[in-house]
Amino acid sequence: MRDIVPVPPSIVQNRHAEVRELFNQFVVPTYGRFDLALSHGVGSHVWDVTGKRYLDLGGGIAVCSLGHANDEITQALVEQSRRLVHVSNLYYQEPQGRLAQSLVGHLAPGKVFFCNSGAEANEGLYKLARKFGHDEGRFEILTAINSFHGRTLGGISATGQDKVKKGFDPLVPGFRHIPFNDLQAVRDALSPATVAILIEGIQGEGGITPATVDYLLGLRALCDEKRMLLLLDGVQCGHFRTGRFQSYQRILEGLPGAADFRVDGLSMAKSLGGGFPIGAFWVRDQAHGVELCNVLGPGTHGTTFGGTPLASAVALKIMEVIERDHLADHVRKTGDWLSTELQRWVIQYPDVIRNARGIGFMQGVELQDRESIRAFADIDKAPSLQMVNRLHEAGLLTIPSGTNVVRFLPALNLPQSQLAEGLALFERTIQEVR
Ligand SMILES: *Cc1c(COP(=O)(O)O)cnc(C)c1O
Q1: What spacing in Å lies between the alpha carbon of 58 and ligand 1's midpoint?
Q2: Which of 266, 389, 362 shows the shortest CA–CA distance to 59?
Q3: Can you give the pTM of this predicted structure?
Q4: What residue ranges do the domains of the chain occupy?
Q5: For residue 17, how far is its CA from the centre of ligand 1 (angstroms)?
Q6: What is the mean pLDDT of each run of 10 residues along the chain (434 residues)?
Q7: Quick one: fold of 16-57+327-433?
């Protein structure tokens, strides 16, 4: 007699379930995760634990600036970690100084403070603004509706979206929100306590909305007139993502005087470390007759890990590769082509795609509402999530932004041929769901 042995479940499926179960049991459930367990990557491709390959057009939310498992980043990590990983900010060390020099060189005369994340970089800007206005009793910072500035208590207070604040009051006082790209709204909102305005050059979480030329120029003039600081959150839209180091440099390009345009403070993180955690803020040398870059003096601000030799060496290597390989030009050219393709979709598939926006490697398509898309209508889930899930099935990683926008935030070295493959998969999916 033969025993009937049940077929064992596939090992890869076990691993997927096992990884997910670890999260269910042991990780605080603050994220609505997609049902993918990723295991390794190369360049702009990643594999999940079942062995399925995906083209990553989300770049870990604009973080993996040189893609996955980049050899030169690995080498920088190994070499620096053999020499010195951490010493604290009680001492000088060359990598942090060199990185600050490089960042200042891409902006304008000023200084840099290093931290570990975008939210923390913005916290530094809030403290800069408060210290700057302190002796005049000014403390209030205006930020935009639909902005995103991070998840610390200060970050959610600054963020112009109710969903991040809900359940966490009392919030940090001193923030008010105004409609984005509306100069009159800023003027109307000013109070004697207003000391700064903070905006993203391109709103990311809010649905990929670039600041207009008039808005940027108007804010600068208003800040000059009222002795306020113009602060830019470049955490997502910065680091060459637009084809220039910072989004405002690209947005204002070609205008007379554009090269002289300055913001007073600017936050960075995401792409800066290519996946190794590092954040920073830059502050201008002089503003309103004050040495702004020295307003935060000894003892006023700090962090244990900010700008370790290891993080700084990695970020420096990334800067070096971006310059050596002319990745800003690559992003500009490839991003312009991406814009053209997305605009074609708006015309060709108006029943699915309502609009397309963005610059360079920070672009998004706005989907029609769920009811209008045949395959989405029955499921009570935002169209952006449904589309991103479908794209996973097709082998493509993208990032939802709000309920209707699907974002592209790929590695800066993504070849155009791979982007074309990704867009072909996306287009086929659009044709399937309409
Ligand atoms: C991601 C993001 C932040 C927060 O960065 P963390 O590293 O998550 O703290 C802040 N501002 C913008 C514009 C972002 O996209």
Answers
A1: 15
A2: 362
A3: 0.96
A4: 16-57+327-433, 72-324
A5: 30
A6: 65 85 98 96 97 98 98 98 98 98 98 98 98 98 98 98 98 98 98 98 97 98 98 98 98 95 98 98 98 98 98 98 98 98 98 98 98 95 98 98 97 98 98 97
A7: Aspartate Aminotransferase, domain 1 (3.90.1150)
